[in-house]
Specification:
Keywords: Coiled coil. It is built from five helices and no strands. By secondary structure, it is mostly helical.
Length: about 230
C-alpha cells in the first residue's frame, strides 16, 4: 500500500497512534480510488437493472397477477377465477423473463456488481478495524498530553469514532445486499436450468423488480462513505 500523504493534524501523535492513523488514511485513499474508478460501472449496472425491472413489471401488469398470489385476483377483479388461471399467468411471465434473456442479464449484472463492490467492502472493513484500534490504543497515552493537546486529541478521537460507526453502518448494508444478490443469482440459475416451485418463480420476478433499488442503495451508501473519508483525510 502506498505511503500516506501528509496529515492535516496540527500536533504529532505518539508513534503507535501515528502508525495506525497512517494505516487508516491509506485505506481511506484506497477506498476513494476504487469508488471513483468503479462508480460509472456501478451506475451503469443500476440503469440496466432498472430497465429490466421496468420491463418485467410491465409484463406482470399486462399478462399476470400483480403480486403473483391467489389474493391478487381481487386486484384484477378475477374474484371467481380458478387457481389454474392464476398459475398460467404466473408461468407466462416467468417464460417471458427467461426467453427474453432478462434472467440471464440479471445474473450477469448481479455477479459484476458483487465483483466491483467486494474490494471496497474489504477496505471498509479495514477502516472500521483501524478506527477501533485507534480508540483502544488512545486510552494508553492520554495521560501524556497537556490540557491543550488533550482537547485536540479528543477532537481527533471523536472524528475517528464517527468514521468507525459510519463504516460499520455501510458495511452492514453491503453485507445484506451482496448476500441478497448472491441469492438472486442462484435463484436465476435454478429457475432457468431446473423445474422449480411456483413460489420460487414468484420470488425471482419480485427480486428482479427489486434489484435496481437494492444496488442503488449500495451506490448511495458508498458515495456517502467517500464524502466522509474525503473530509477526514
Amino acid at each position: 500500500m502506498a505511503s500516506a500523504p501528509r496529515r492535516r493534524w496540527s500536533k504529532d501523535l505518539p508513534p503507535d497512534l501515528s502508525e495506525l492513523m497512517n494505516t487508516l488514511i491509506n485505506y481511506a485513499h484506497s477506498f476513494i480510488r476504487k469508488f471513483d474508478y468503479k462508480e460509472p460501472a456501478m451506475r451503469r449496472i443500476v440503469r440496466e437493472l432498472q430497465t429490466i425491472s421496468d420491463e418485467v413489471r410491465e409484463e406482470v401488469q399486462n399478462r399476470g397477477p400483480s403480486d403473483f398470489t391467489r389474493g391478487v385476483r381481487q386486484t384484477f377483479g378475477f374474484l371467481a377465477a380458478p387457481l389454474e388461471l392464476v398459475e398460467k399467468g404466473v408461468q407466462h411471465v416467468t417464460n417471458a423473463v427467461i426467453e427474453s434473456g432478462a434472467a440471464h442479464q440479471v445474473e450477469t449484472l448481479g455477479k459484476e456488481f458483487m465483483e466491483i463492490v467486494e474490494p471496497m467492502k474489504i477496505d471498509l472493513k479495514q477502516i472500521q478495524t483501524t478506527c477501533e484500534k485507534l480508540e483502544q490504543e488512545s486510552s494508553k497515552v492520554k495521560a501524556t498530553y497537556t490540557l491543550e493537546e488533550m482537547e485536540e486529541f479528543e477532537g481527533i478521537l471523536r472524528r475517528v469514532s464517527a468514521l468507525g460507526k459510519q463504516s460499520e453502518g455501510v458495511l452492514g448494508v453491503l453485507v445484506t445486499v451482496l448476500g441478497w444478490l448472491g441469492d438472486l443469482v442462484m435463484l436465476v440459475v435454478n429457475v432457468v436450468k431446473a423445474t422449480v416451485s411456483r413460489e420460487a418463480e414468484e420470488k425471482l420476478r419480485a427480486s428482479i423488480m427489486e434489484s435496481a433499488e437494492r444496488c442503488q442503495k449500495v451506490v448511495r451508501e458508498l458515495e456517502t462513505m467517500k464524502k466522509e473519508l474525503t473530509e477526514f483525510i
